[in-house]
Amino acid sequence: MDVGVYRLRSFSISLLSSVLSSRPVTLDHSSSGASVVAIDNKIEQAMDLVKSHLMYAVREEVEVLKEQIKELIDRNSQLEQENSLLKNLASPEQLAQFQAQVQAGSPTAGPPAALQQNQGPGPTA
């Protein structure tokens, strides 16, 4: 995202610069405010262009985030199914030991020792 924002910002600055430099802007006090109106119109055009580019960048980022959310929901569902399967395969003693470890706050790098001892050939996910 940072590279995209940088490119958009760089593009917007160069675009604003080209819009403003397409006709030299001079403040002629002898005119009846026509140059002020021209400046206002160029600024408004540049702001509209920057706004549209920013909206495009935001839409792109929203699409990326939606895809990430979808992937995370799928992964969460997969982990919930795996957790349910493991709970069903564990004995009451193993579950009690696991609950004791969780309540004690001891970090576990893998399955509790009781689960590791009783693992054998079984269903694979």
From TrEMBL:
One of its GO terms (biological process) is regulation of transcription by RNA polymerase II. One of its GO terms (cellular component) is nucleus. Residues 100-125 are annotated as: Disordered. Residues 55-89 form a coiled coil. Residues 115-125 have a biased composition (Polar residues). It is found in: Cytoplasm; Nucleus. CDD domains: ZIP_TSC22D1 (cd21938). The keyword Coiled coil applies. Keywords: Coiled coil, Cytoplasm, Nucleus, Transcription, Transcription regulation. Belongs to the TSC-22/Dip/Bun family. This is TSC22 domain family protein 1. The lineage of its organism: Eukaryota, Metazoa, Chordata, Craniata, Vertebrata.
